[in-house]
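User: Can you predict the 3D structure for this chain?
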Amino acid sequence: MDIGESGGGQSRVCGASVGKGRVEDDIRSDDDNNERGRDIVSRPICVYAPLGYQPFSQSHSRPDTRHCEIFFRYAYSISSFHITNANVRVPYKKVLPIQDLLSVILLSDVEDVIFEETCYTLASIVQLSSDPSYGAPFTSDRHCSRLVRLLQRGSNIAVQRAALQLVGALTGRSDEYTTRLLRANLLSALAELVEHPLGEDACWVLSNVVAENVDHLRVVVFEDPRILPTVIRLLKVDASGFDEDEFAGRTRECCNILAGVIRMGEVGCIRRMVALGGISALCTALKYVAEAEVLVVILDALWKVVLFGENDRIVLRGGGGLDGGDAVLGMEGLGQEGGAAVDEEPVNLYLRLFQENGGFDGLYRLEHRKDRVVAEAAQQFLALVSGLCPIHGTTSILTYLSLD
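Assistant: Here is the predicted structure, written as C-alpha coordinates:
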Protein backbone atom coordinates (compact mmCIF):
# COMPACT_ATOMS: atom_id res chain seq x y z
CA MET A 1 0.00 0.00 0.00
CA ASP A 2 1.25 3.49 -0.84
CA ILE A 3 -0.26 6.25 1.25
CA GLY A 4 -0.92 8.90 -1.36
CA GLU A 5 1.62 9.87 -3.97
CA SER A 6 4.89 10.44 -2.27
CA GLY A 7 6.89 13.37 -3.52
CA GLY A 8 9.82 12.49 -1.32
CA GLY A 9 13.15 11.95 -2.93
CA GLN A 10 11.93 12.40 -6.46
CA SER A 11 14.50 13.76 -8.87
CA ARG A 12 13.56 17.34 -9.40
CA VAL A 13 15.28 19.86 -11.61
CA CYS A 14 15.84 23.35 -10.32
CA GLY A 15 13.16 25.98 -10.32
CA ALA A 16 13.08 29.34 -12.00
CA SER A 17 16.24 30.71 -10.49
CA VAL A 18 18.01 33.58 -12.16
CA GLY A 19 21.26 35.29 -11.42
CA LYS A 20 21.70 38.35 -9.24
CA GLY A 21 24.58 40.05 -11.04
CA ARG A 22 24.78 43.47 -12.61
CA VAL A 23 24.17 42.14 -16.11
CA GLU A 24 20.76 40.90 -14.99
CA ASP A 25 19.99 44.22 -13.30
CA ASP A 26 20.82 46.05 -16.49
CA ILE A 27 18.58 43.80 -18.56
CA ARG A 28 15.72 44.04 -16.09
CA SER A 29 15.62 47.79 -16.66
CA ASP A 30 13.90 46.82 -19.90
CA ASP A 31 10.21 46.33 -19.02
CA ASP A 32 9.62 43.70 -21.65
CA ASN A 33 12.04 40.83 -21.10
CA ASN A 34 9.63 38.45 -22.76
CA GLU A 35 9.62 40.31 -26.05
CA ARG A 36 13.40 40.55 -25.90
CA GLY A 37 13.58 36.80 -25.39
CA ARG A 38 11.40 36.17 -28.45
CA ASP A 39 13.60 38.49 -30.45
CA ILE A 40 16.82 36.82 -29.31
CA VAL A 41 15.81 33.23 -29.96
CA SER A 42 14.56 34.16 -33.42
CA ARG A 43 17.92 35.57 -34.51
CA PRO A 44 20.21 33.62 -36.88
CA ILE A 45 23.03 31.53 -35.50
CA CYS A 46 25.65 33.91 -36.92
CA VAL A 47 24.72 36.43 -34.20
CA TYR A 48 26.15 34.14 -31.50
CA ALA A 49 29.14 32.63 -33.23
CA PRO A 50 31.40 35.73 -33.16
CA LEU A 51 30.51 36.40 -29.54
CA GLY A 52 30.97 32.76 -28.66
CA TYR A 53 34.39 32.08 -30.00
CA GLN A 54 36.43 35.23 -30.61
CA PRO A 55 37.22 36.05 -26.95
CA PHE A 56 38.06 32.45 -25.96
CA SER A 57 39.59 30.89 -29.03
CA GLN A 58 43.15 30.33 -27.79
CA SER A 59 43.11 29.82 -24.02
CA HIS A 60 41.09 29.76 -20.83
CA SER A 61 42.58 32.98 -19.52
CA ARG A 62 40.40 35.89 -18.38
CA PRO A 63 37.91 36.73 -21.18
CA ASP A 64 37.20 40.25 -22.30
CA THR A 65 34.57 41.71 -19.92
CA ARG A 66 32.87 43.74 -22.65
CA HIS A 67 32.30 40.63 -24.74
CA CYS A 68 30.98 38.79 -21.70
CA GLU A 69 28.48 41.53 -20.94
CA ILE A 70 27.23 41.54 -24.52
CA PHE A 71 27.00 37.76 -24.48
CA PHE A 72 25.04 37.67 -21.25
CA ARG A 73 22.41 39.94 -22.72
CA TYR A 74 21.71 37.06 -25.08
CA ALA A 75 22.21 34.26 -22.55
CA TYR A 76 20.00 35.87 -19.94
CA SER A 77 17.30 36.52 -22.53
CA ILE A 78 17.26 32.83 -23.50
CA SER A 79 17.17 31.82 -19.83
CA SER A 80 14.40 34.31 -19.03
CA PHE A 81 12.42 33.29 -22.10
CA HIS A 82 12.62 29.61 -21.06
CA ILE A 83 11.52 30.39 -17.50
CA THR A 84 8.49 32.46 -18.52
CA ASN A 85 7.51 30.23 -21.46
CA ALA A 86 8.08 26.70 -20.24
CA ASN A 87 6.14 25.14 -23.11
CA VAL A 88 8.08 26.93 -25.84
CA ARG A 89 11.07 25.07 -27.26
CA VAL A 90 14.13 27.19 -27.94
CA PRO A 91 15.64 26.14 -31.29
CA TYR A 92 18.32 23.50 -30.88
CA LYS A 93 20.83 25.20 -33.16
CA LYS A 94 20.64 28.42 -31.16
CA VAL A 95 21.20 26.83 -27.75
CA LEU A 96 24.26 24.64 -28.30
CA PRO A 97 26.67 27.48 -29.23
CA ILE A 98 25.55 29.29 -26.07
CA GLN A 99 26.18 26.12 -24.06
CA ASP A 100 29.61 25.65 -25.67
CA LEU A 101 30.61 29.16 -24.73
CA LEU A 102 29.32 28.81 -21.20
CA SER A 103 31.30 25.60 -20.74
CA VAL A 104 34.47 27.46 -21.71
CA ILE A 105 33.64 30.35 -19.35
CA LEU A 106 33.15 27.87 -16.52
CA LEU A 107 36.80 26.80 -16.90
CA SER A 108 38.04 30.37 -17.26
CA ASP A 109 39.30 32.99 -14.83
CA VAL A 110 36.43 35.49 -14.79
CA GLU A 111 34.61 37.69 -12.31
CA ASP A 112 32.31 35.98 -9.82
CA VAL A 113 29.25 37.64 -11.30
CA ILE A 114 30.01 35.94 -14.62
CA PHE A 115 30.42 32.55 -12.94
CA GLU A 116 27.06 33.17 -11.29
CA GLU A 117 25.27 33.96 -14.54
CA THR A 118 27.02 31.07 -16.27
CA CYS A 119 25.70 28.56 -13.74
CA TYR A 120 22.15 29.88 -13.85
CA THR A 121 22.02 29.88 -17.64
CA LEU A 122 23.53 26.39 -17.89
CA ALA A 123 20.93 25.17 -15.37
CA SER A 124 18.23 26.57 -17.62
CA ILE A 125 19.74 24.92 -20.70
CA VAL A 126 19.97 21.52 -18.96
CA GLN A 127 16.21 21.69 -18.38
CA LEU A 128 15.32 22.60 -21.96
CA SER A 129 15.35 19.05 -23.32
CA SER A 130 16.15 15.44 -22.50
CA ASP A 131 18.41 15.40 -25.56
CA PRO A 132 21.90 14.32 -24.37
CA SER A 133 23.44 17.32 -26.13
CA TYR A 134 21.90 19.56 -23.49
CA GLY A 135 24.28 19.30 -20.55
CA ALA A 136 26.92 17.45 -22.60
CA PRO A 137 29.87 19.46 -21.19
CA PHE A 138 29.30 17.73 -17.83
CA THR A 139 30.21 14.37 -19.26
CA SER A 140 33.69 15.80 -18.70
CA ASP A 141 35.31 15.25 -15.30
CA ARG A 142 37.05 18.58 -15.70
CA HIS A 143 33.79 20.54 -15.84
CA CYS A 144 32.33 18.58 -12.92
CA SER A 145 35.42 19.23 -10.80
CA ARG A 146 35.25 22.96 -11.56
CA LEU A 147 31.58 23.06 -10.63
CA VAL A 148 32.26 21.37 -7.28
CA ARG A 149 35.06 23.85 -6.60
CA LEU A 150 32.57 26.69 -7.13
CA LEU A 151 30.40 25.09 -4.44
CA GLN A 152 33.37 25.33 -2.11
CA ARG A 153 33.89 29.04 -2.79
CA GLY A 154 32.88 30.17 0.68
CA SER A 155 33.80 33.79 -0.01
CA ASN A 156 30.81 34.29 -2.32
CA ILE A 157 27.45 32.81 -1.35
CA ALA A 158 25.86 34.03 -4.60
CA VAL A 159 28.23 31.87 -6.66
CA GLN A 160 27.61 28.90 -4.35
CA ARG A 161 23.83 29.32 -4.73
CA ALA A 162 24.10 29.45 -8.53
CA ALA A 163 26.39 26.41 -8.58
CA LEU A 164 23.90 24.48 -6.41
CA GLN A 165 21.13 25.23 -8.90
CA LEU A 166 23.24 23.79 -11.71
CA VAL A 167 24.24 20.75 -9.64
CA GLY A 168 20.57 20.19 -8.78
CA ALA A 169 19.58 20.35 -12.43
CA LEU A 170 22.29 17.85 -13.38
CA THR A 171 21.57 15.37 -10.56
CA GLY A 172 17.88 15.51 -11.40
CA ARG A 173 18.63 14.83 -15.04
CA SER A 174 20.99 11.84 -15.24
CA ASP A 175 22.76 9.20 -13.16
CA GLU A 176 25.86 9.74 -15.28
CA TYR A 177 26.12 13.39 -14.23
CA THR A 178 25.56 12.40 -10.60
CA THR A 179 28.27 9.74 -10.75
CA ARG A 180 30.80 12.17 -12.21
CA LEU A 181 29.94 14.86 -9.65
CA LEU A 182 30.29 12.38 -6.78
CA ARG A 183 33.66 11.34 -8.18
CA ALA A 184 34.62 15.04 -8.11
CA ASN A 185 34.03 15.16 -4.33
CA LEU A 186 30.49 16.57 -4.45
CA LEU A 187 29.54 14.84 -1.20
CA SER A 188 32.21 16.64 0.80
CA ALA A 189 31.10 20.00 -0.60
CA LEU A 190 27.44 19.30 0.24
CA ALA A 191 28.33 18.16 3.76
CA GLU A 192 29.79 21.61 4.40
CA LEU A 193 26.61 23.30 3.16
CA VAL A 194 23.88 21.31 4.91
CA GLU A 195 23.99 23.59 7.98
CA HIS A 196 24.84 26.64 5.87
CA PRO A 197 22.30 29.36 4.87
CA LEU A 198 22.15 27.36 1.62
CA GLY A 199 21.18 24.21 3.52
CA GLU A 200 17.80 23.89 1.82
CA ASP A 201 19.40 23.78 -1.63
CA ALA A 202 22.13 21.41 -0.45
CA CYS A 203 19.53 19.01 0.97
CA TRP A 204 17.52 19.28 -2.24
CA VAL A 205 20.57 18.12 -4.20
CA LEU A 206 21.08 15.25 -1.74
CA SER A 207 17.45 14.18 -2.18
CA ASN A 208 18.11 14.01 -5.92
CA VAL A 209 21.25 11.94 -5.38
CA VAL A 210 19.48 9.28 -3.27
CA ALA A 211 16.31 9.21 -5.35
CA GLU A 212 16.87 6.53 -7.96
CA ASN A 213 20.28 4.85 -7.79
CA VAL A 214 21.24 2.35 -5.09
CA ASP A 215 24.98 2.93 -5.59
CA HIS A 216 24.52 6.68 -5.09
CA LEU A 217 22.39 6.00 -2.02
CA ARG A 218 25.12 3.86 -0.47
CA VAL A 219 27.68 6.59 -1.08
CA VAL A 220 25.54 9.14 0.80
CA VAL A 221 24.71 6.77 3.66
CA PHE A 222 28.10 5.16 4.23
CA GLU A 223 30.96 7.12 2.66
CA ASP A 224 30.59 10.48 4.42
CA PRO A 225 29.90 10.06 8.15
CA ARG A 226 28.60 13.63 8.46
CA ILE A 227 25.66 13.82 6.11
CA LEU A 228 22.99 11.44 7.38
CA PRO A 229 23.50 12.20 11.11
CA THR A 230 23.36 15.93 10.34
CA VAL A 231 20.21 15.61 8.23
CA ILE A 232 18.48 13.63 11.00
CA ARG A 233 19.55 16.06 13.72
CA LEU A 234 18.45 19.09 11.71
CA LEU A 235 15.07 17.53 10.97
CA LYS A 236 14.43 16.98 14.67
CA VAL A 237 15.48 20.53 15.57
CA ASP A 238 13.90 22.35 12.62
CA ALA A 239 10.57 20.51 12.71
CA SER A 240 10.00 21.19 16.40
CA GLY A 241 11.52 24.68 16.44
CA PHE A 242 9.75 27.99 16.72
CA ASP A 243 11.03 29.54 13.49
CA GLU A 244 9.03 27.39 11.09
CA ASP A 245 9.18 29.81 8.17
CA GLU A 246 12.97 30.05 8.21
CA PHE A 247 13.59 26.30 8.14
CA ALA A 248 10.46 24.96 6.42
CA GLY A 249 12.30 24.39 3.14
CA ARG A 250 15.19 22.55 4.78
CA THR A 251 12.71 20.45 6.78
CA ARG A 252 10.94 19.46 3.57
CA GLU A 253 14.17 18.41 1.86
CA CYS A 254 15.41 16.49 4.93
CA CYS A 255 12.13 14.54 4.88
CA ASN A 256 12.66 13.85 1.18
CA ILE A 257 16.17 12.50 1.86
CA LEU A 258 14.98 10.07 4.55
CA ALA A 259 11.97 9.08 2.43
CA GLY A 260 14.37 8.34 -0.43
CA VAL A 261 16.49 6.09 1.78
CA ILE A 262 13.39 4.14 2.82
CA ARG A 263 11.82 3.97 -0.63
CA MET A 264 14.89 2.33 -2.17
CA GLY A 265 14.42 -0.67 0.17
CA GLU A 266 18.15 -1.23 0.70
CA VAL A 267 18.39 -3.16 3.99
CA GLY A 268 21.77 -1.86 5.11
CA CYS A 269 20.86 1.77 4.34
CA ILE A 270 17.52 1.56 6.15
CA ARG A 271 19.11 -0.03 9.21
CA ARG A 272 21.78 2.66 9.26
CA MET A 273 19.19 5.42 9.02
CA VAL A 274 17.12 3.88 11.83
CA ALA A 275 20.19 3.44 14.05
CA LEU A 276 21.01 7.13 13.67
CA GLY A 277 17.51 8.20 14.76
CA GLY A 278 15.68 8.44 11.44
CA ILE A 279 12.35 7.11 12.70
CA SER A 280 12.30 9.43 15.69
CA ALA A 281 13.14 12.38 13.41
CA LEU A 282 10.27 11.53 11.05
CA CYS A 283 7.92 11.09 14.04
CA THR A 284 8.94 14.53 15.32
CA ALA A 285 8.18 16.01 11.91
CA LEU A 286 4.85 14.15 11.85
CA LYS A 287 3.85 15.90 15.08
CA TYR A 288 4.84 19.43 14.10
CA VAL A 289 4.96 19.94 10.33
CA ALA A 290 1.98 21.81 8.86
CA GLU A 291 2.56 21.59 5.09
CA ALA A 292 0.24 18.98 3.56
CA GLU A 293 2.63 17.88 0.82
CA VAL A 294 5.41 17.23 3.33
CA LEU A 295 3.05 15.36 5.65
CA VAL A 296 2.12 12.98 2.86
CA VAL A 297 5.83 12.31 2.25
CA ILE A 298 6.35 11.63 5.98
CA LEU A 299 3.31 9.34 6.27
CA ASP A 300 4.34 7.37 3.21
CA ALA A 301 7.92 6.98 4.48
CA LEU A 302 6.85 5.89 7.97
CA TRP A 303 4.34 3.42 6.59
CA LYS A 304 6.94 1.88 4.30
CA VAL A 305 9.52 1.52 7.09
CA VAL A 306 6.95 -0.08 9.41
CA LEU A 307 5.98 -2.50 6.66
CA PHE A 308 9.66 -3.18 5.99
CA GLY A 309 10.01 -4.09 9.67
CA GLU A 310 7.50 -6.92 9.25
CA ASN A 311 10.02 -8.64 7.00
CA ASP A 312 13.01 -7.67 9.13
CA ARG A 313 11.86 -8.84 12.56
CA ILE A 314 14.50 -8.87 15.27
CA VAL A 315 15.07 -10.75 18.51
CA LEU A 316 16.19 -8.05 20.95
CA ARG A 317 19.01 -9.23 23.21
CA GLY A 318 20.59 -7.97 26.39
CA GLY A 319 21.07 -4.20 26.63
CA GLY A 320 18.73 -3.46 23.76
CA GLY A 321 17.18 -0.34 25.23
CA LEU A 322 15.45 2.23 23.04
CA ASP A 323 17.48 5.12 24.41
CA GLY A 324 16.73 8.28 22.45
CA GLY A 325 14.56 6.44 19.98
CA ASP A 326 16.52 4.33 17.57
CA ALA A 327 19.98 3.30 18.74
CA VAL A 328 19.34 -0.37 19.44
CA LEU A 329 22.53 -2.47 19.52
CA GLY A 330 23.95 0.02 17.04
CA MET A 331 21.76 -1.81 14.50
CA GLU A 332 24.93 -3.64 13.46
CA GLY A 333 24.21 -6.98 15.09
CA LEU A 334 20.48 -7.18 14.48
CA GLY A 335 19.23 -10.73 14.74
CA GLN A 336 22.62 -12.11 15.69
CA GLU A 337 23.14 -14.57 18.50
CA GLY A 338 24.58 -13.50 21.82
CA GLY A 339 23.29 -11.89 25.00
CA ALA A 340 20.18 -12.64 26.96
CA ALA A 341 16.96 -12.37 24.99
CA VAL A 342 14.70 -9.51 26.05
CA ASP A 343 11.83 -10.73 23.86
CA GLU A 344 11.34 -14.41 23.22
CA GLU A 345 9.93 -13.82 19.75
CA PRO A 346 11.18 -11.57 16.95
CA VAL A 347 9.56 -8.14 16.96
CA ASN A 348 8.97 -5.42 14.43
CA LEU A 349 11.53 -3.02 15.87
CA TYR A 350 10.58 -0.26 13.44
CA LEU A 351 6.97 -0.29 14.63
CA ARG A 352 8.13 -0.27 18.24
CA LEU A 353 10.29 2.78 17.54
CA PHE A 354 7.38 4.47 15.78
CA GLN A 355 5.19 3.86 18.83
CA GLU A 356 7.73 4.96 21.44
CA ASN A 357 8.65 8.16 19.58
CA GLY A 358 5.11 9.50 19.47
CA GLY A 359 4.14 8.31 16.01
CA PHE A 360 0.58 7.56 17.11
CA ASP A 361 0.28 11.05 18.62
CA GLY A 362 1.18 12.43 15.20
CA LEU A 363 -1.46 10.26 13.53
CA TYR A 364 -4.14 11.32 16.02
CA ARG A 365 -3.25 14.95 15.28
CA LEU A 366 -3.84 14.41 11.58
CA GLU A 367 -6.81 12.04 11.38
CA HIS A 368 -9.36 14.89 11.56
CA ARG A 369 -7.35 17.43 9.61
CA LYS A 370 -9.20 19.47 6.98
CA ASP A 371 -6.81 18.38 4.23
CA ARG A 372 -8.64 15.32 2.94
CA VAL A 373 -5.58 13.53 1.54
CA VAL A 374 -3.61 13.90 4.77
CA ALA A 375 -6.57 12.94 6.98
CA GLU A 376 -7.37 9.83 4.96
CA ALA A 377 -3.72 8.75 4.91
CA ALA A 378 -3.52 9.12 8.70
CA GLN A 379 -6.78 7.19 9.17
CA GLN A 380 -5.56 4.33 6.93
CA PHE A 381 -2.25 4.23 8.79
CA LEU A 382 -4.07 4.02 12.14
CA ALA A 383 -6.41 1.30 10.90
CA LEU A 384 -3.53 -0.81 9.65
CA VAL A 385 -1.19 -0.62 12.63
CA SER A 386 -3.42 -0.12 15.68
CA GLY A 387 -4.07 -3.86 15.86
CA LEU A 388 -0.35 -4.53 16.12
CA CYS A 389 0.11 -2.86 19.52
CA PRO A 390 1.34 -4.31 21.73
CA ILE A 391 3.73 -5.56 19.09
CA HIS A 392 5.13 -8.54 21.00
CA GLY A 393 2.66 -10.91 19.35
CA THR A 394 2.77 -12.56 15.97
CA THR A 395 0.01 -10.51 14.28
CA SER A 396 1.22 -9.33 10.90
CA ILE A 397 0.58 -6.06 9.13
CA LEU A 398 0.02 -8.12 6.00
CA THR A 399 -3.27 -9.45 7.45
CA TYR A 400 -4.62 -5.91 7.41
CA LEU A 401 -3.80 -5.06 3.84
CA SER A 402 -7.34 -6.00 2.76
CA LEU A 403 -8.48 -2.75 4.39
CA ASP A 404 -6.67 -0.77 1.71
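The two ends are 7 Å apart (CA to CA). The CA atoms of residues 96 and 327 lie 52 Å apart.
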